[in-house]
Amino acid sequence: MMIAEVSEKLDISQDTLRYYERIGLLPRVNRNQSGIRDYSEEDCRWIEFIKCMRSAGLPIDVLIEYVRLFQQGDETMEARKEILIEQRKQLLKRMEDMQETLERLEYKIASYEEKVVKAEQTLKKPEEV
Amino acid sequence: MMIAEVSEKLDISQDTLRYYERIGLLPRVNRNQSGIRDYSEEDCRWIEFIKCMRSAGLPIDVLIEYVRLFQQGDETMEARKEILIEQRKQLLKRMEDMQETLERLEYKIASYEEKVVKAEQTLKKPEEV
DNA sequence: ATCACACTTGGAGTTAACTCCAAGTCAAGA
DNA sequence: TCTTGACTTGGAGTTAACTCCAAGTGTGAT
């Protein structure tokens, strides 16, 4: 698969794909005989994985380290697992914080409902009298 | 309250507090007779609110608009409510995405558990025989 | 009175994460 | 053969969100 197709399919710009590879956020992609990237299915799964983790807020440097360990082979499995466990913990924390914010938003929205109703009643009164 | 105290109490740098005010993310803070910011309790509640919303990922420009409307008075209540409702929707969406990512992380961790165990067994075998 | 210090402002600098650009290569079609 | 267009690279530019800086001011202690 060439870069245009992957970019289209996974909705990530070609520049970003090249950038991610440059900084080690993706394992190096194979080139064909004329030096052009030829993405494998595995490459695509990586890209999709990275995109998903990034969108949930996992830091780039952590993911780079994860990719680096992955490329070193099976003896780094334990270390990679630890990274994921730590990131799960931090993700849970963020989700809890967001839950609190959500509740706060709910509360504020509810109090606007009330205030808006009151304001409407106030406006109405002159008409009623 | 002066800026040092607020900064300390809410754990936001003085520079950030001034920056937020500059870009309209906080209503203008009153100054005392010598031009120094004197934060009221209400100011502090704003700062805390903004900090909370920002940490949940609400965009700065949306919050600036919210503050702007707030300063225009009660006739903007409906508009402010709509902003909060839209932001609640987007927050929920982000939380759902994060939930999916979390599950994916869980799955990956679980499969590492398995693989690590297998690898250990493979290592053990020679000893067992 | 003068020194230190916490504050002020406008503006410059920094960092992360892209995003764009220029110059060059290669393969395919007119 | 020439042109077109998708790709390559290294490096420069951009944007958001701070963060820092320099020059200046007001207040309180020595």
Give the arrangement of secondary structure elements:
The structure is a homodimer of 129-residue chains.
Chain A: H1 3-10, H2 14-22, H3 41-55, H4 60-71, H5 77-128
Helix pairs in contact in A: 4-5
Chain A binds a DNA duplex (30 and 30 nucleotides) through residues 2-4, 13-16, 18-19, 22-23, 31, 34-37, 60.
Short description:
2 copies of one chain form a homodimer. Chain A is 74% helix and 0% strand.
Folded structure, characterized:
Chains A, B: It holds the Pfam family MerR_1. 2 copies of one chain form a homodimer. In chain A, α4 runs antiparallel to α5 (77-128). Chain A has 5 helices and no strands. Chain A is 74% helix and 0% strand. The radius of gyration of chain A is 24 Å and the shape is elongated. Chain A folds into 2 domains: 1-71, Multidrug-efflux Transporter Regulator, Chain: A, Domain 2 (Orthogonal Bundle), CATH 1.10.1660.10; 73-129. With 129 residues, chain A is mostly helical. The model of chain A has no long low-confidence stretch (mean pLDDT 91). The interface between A and B is medium-sized, with 35 and 35 residues. The structure holds a DNA duplex (30 and 30 nucleotides).
Notable characteristics:
homodimer; 129 residues; 74% helix; elongated; DNA-binding; coiled coil (chains A, B); MerR-type_HTH_dom (chains A, B); MerR_fam (chains A, B); DNA binding (chains A, B)
Question: Whole-number average pLDDT of chain A?
Answer: 91
What global shape of chain A is seen? Answer: elongated
Number of strands of chain A: 0
CATH class categorisation of the largest domain in chain A: Mainly Alpha
Q: Give the termini separation of chain A.
A: 75 Å
Uncertain regions of chain A: pLDDT < 50 for 5+ in a row?
none
